[in-house]
Amino acid sequence: MGCRLAIAGVTGAVGQEFLSILEQREFPFDSLKMLASSRSKGKKITFKGKEYIVEELTENSFNDIDIALFSAGGSRSKQFAQAVVDAGAVMVDNSSAFRMDPEVPLVIPEINPEAIKDNKGIIANPNCSTIIGIVPVWPLHKANPVKRIIVSTYQAASGAGQSAMLELEHQAQEILDGKEPTCNAFPCQIAFNCFCHNSALGPNGYNEEEMKMVKETRKIFDCPEIAITCTCIRIPVFRAHCESINLEFTEPITPDQVRDLLSTAPGVTLMDDRENNRHPMPIDASGNDDIYVGHIRQDESIPENRGINLWVAGDQLRKGAALNAVQIAEKLL
């Protein structure tokens, strides 16, 4: 038996990815309501051979809904959360609105699916960089506790939405045509360039994206003492994030042990071909569900073989956003 499903923010990049993943995974639903802002009201979307009319997202949208997948922005999530809960539905929220709320489970199904049952009507989807980074770290951490994580991200335009992906495309054409690039979605030129993540800087000098990774990892791992530091960077790639991850373990560990652990890890694909220097790239991960892991090396600067370097690539719109939310919805069923 299926559920009564709603998608809030259905016309956005993640909303469209929700539809793709729901179809591919044959998610069982009895009814589907497509919701967006007043600007998109009346728009027609064909899904699984049926035409749907986009409705305006309001407080009354959830009276006949069991699960609401939200990717409409943090302010919208906060605005409509109580309406979802009052209707007896469960919000699976892709924004940052509730991630650090102690009353709200923050879930990656490969890591902490047991947290889902503690929901009070809202379940938070982690930040895309957090998901992509820690899905492959978790099986290693379970086998040999990680003491410290150093992450540098190489984040695609898709993290800032459909308009940012279009801006990358348009800017590249403008520059190749000898014109000045037009900047709207990003504060800086994204084509043929890279820059510090465009989220706000805090008083400690870290941007919001960097601090999300720190705080969310500690919550998901239920490990407040784990040491984490991040540098988050935008690069001119359409839709898959990459991350350089340095891990310091409690006990010695070798690259071969890491490969063995990751070879059976859910949601992970090894791509670690040293002989041909072939490791994960954004084009490998784009459109795919797994996190790709390679360039696995001993960190020789950490004594007693307790350090490992990894390189990962994951599709920001799929596992980094829509897929993770759909997996949570599947667990709710």
Biggest sheet statistics:
7 strands, mixed
Please give the CATH class of the largest domain: Alpha Beta
Structural Rg: 20 Å
Architecture (CATH level 2) name of the largest domain: 2-Layer Sandwich
Summed up, the domain count is: 2
Describe the structure.
It is a single chain. This protein folds into 2 domains: 3-125 and 321-332, NAD(P)-binding Rossmann-like Domain (Rossmann fold, 3-Layer(aba) Sandwich); 131-316, Dihydrodipicolinate Reductase, domain 2 (2-Layer Sandwich). 29% of the residues lie in helices and 26% in strands. It contains 9 helices and 15 strands. The protein has a 7-stranded mixed beta sheet. Helix 1 (13-24) crosses helix 9 and helix 3 crosses helix 9 (318-332). The mean pLDDT is 95.
Summarize the structure.
The chain contains 9 helices and 15 strands. With 333 residues, it is of the alpha/beta class.
What keywords describe this structure?
2 domains; Rossmann fold; six-stranded parallel beta sheet; alpha/beta; Dihydrodipicolinate Reductase, domain 2; seven-stranded mixed beta sheet; 333 residues; 29% helix; globular
List the helices and strands and how they pair.
Elements: E1 3-8, H1 13-24, E2 29-36, E3 44-47, E4 50-53, E5 55-56, E6 67-70, H2 74-86, E7 90-93, E8 122-124, H3 128-134, H4 137-143, E9 146-155, H5 162-176, E10 195-196, H6 208-221, E11 227-234, E12 240-249, H7 255-263, E13 268-270, H8 282-285, E14 291-298, E15 307-315, H9 318-332
Parallel strand pairs: 1-2, 1-6, 2-5, 6-7, 7-8, 9-11, 13-14
Antiparallel strand pairs: 3-4, 9-12, 10-11, 12-15, 14-15
